[in-house]
Amino acid sequence: MNYTLSQLQIFLKITQTSSITRASEELNLTQPAVSIQLKNFQDQFKIPLTEVIGRKLFVTEFGKEIASAIENILNEVSKIDHKTLAFSGKLSGKLKIAVVSTGKYVMPFFLSKFIKDNDGVDLLLDVTNKAKVIDSLAKNEIDFALVSVLPNNLQIEKIELLKNKLFLVGNNEYKTNKKKVDKKMLEKFSLIYREEGSATRTIMEKFIAKNSLSVRKKIELTSNEAIKQALLAGLGVSVMPLIGIRNELRDKTLQIIPTIGLPIATTWNLIWLKGKKFSPVAENFINYIKKEKTNIVKEHFNWSEEF
Predict the structure, then answer these.
(1) Is 53 in a helix, a strand, or coil?
(2) pTM, 2 dp
(3) What is the domain range of residue 123?
(4) Using alpha carbons only, how large is the chain's radius of gyration in Å?
(5) What count of other Cβ atoms lies within 10 Å of the Cβ of residue 298?
(6) Cβ contact 58:18 at 8 Å
(7) Cis status, amide bond into 48, omega within 30 of 0
């Protein structure tokens, strides 16, 4: 057998995506190039690695076994690369961070310079809802997590990064005179929620319960981007983090509806398991955050103080 490292990487990506098209997109290759490499790789085995049923690609049990072996091989290759860099005096390794979905507007600014200054560091950034973030942290699958609501079932350590403000948001159909409306007005609106497990949803539900509000109509969507599109279309209003609607406020396509009891203020925290043994990469990153966080907030988030 004479397969190449490129073929191994391509086949593993195909098994992860169950699609030649998606694999080609994620690898920044053309679809024909991926198909050719898959064929060349398959030609070296007498047993099928994949099969197509009804135009849908499936990985065979044998293919899954090969993919598992490939993942181990590629991990070892990655270790070789990192050890080479380490011996040359460069910081190297993986930095694994999970962030709640709204955190995608925050975390990149705290990562950018560190990653640029350390080209031997590979970043794995998982953007998902709070429940999955906390699950990854509990299983020690990541180095750090970014959350705005701290978990109450884990022993953690934290660094406060940034204030998080949540406002009632709608499109320009809602006429406001800058005077705060009574929170009971919420009962007249269709409310748009995030999915179960979202920290924003938890905060919104606590606010509604605390004020004994009834919900006239409830719409549930699974991402902040989906909620923004629904707001723009006039489907209702939602309680949203300020950090995720900067462009829409600037362009005046969405507006904050001044409401008594809002904004709700929380804090973006970078957290990790108490007693965690940091890798050199993780230790360098946390030292970088402690040193640079004030400058990062001042440079990239001062605009939020206007609200």
Answers:
(1) strand
(2) 0.70
(3) 93-162+267-306
(4) 23
(5) 9
(6) yes
(7) no
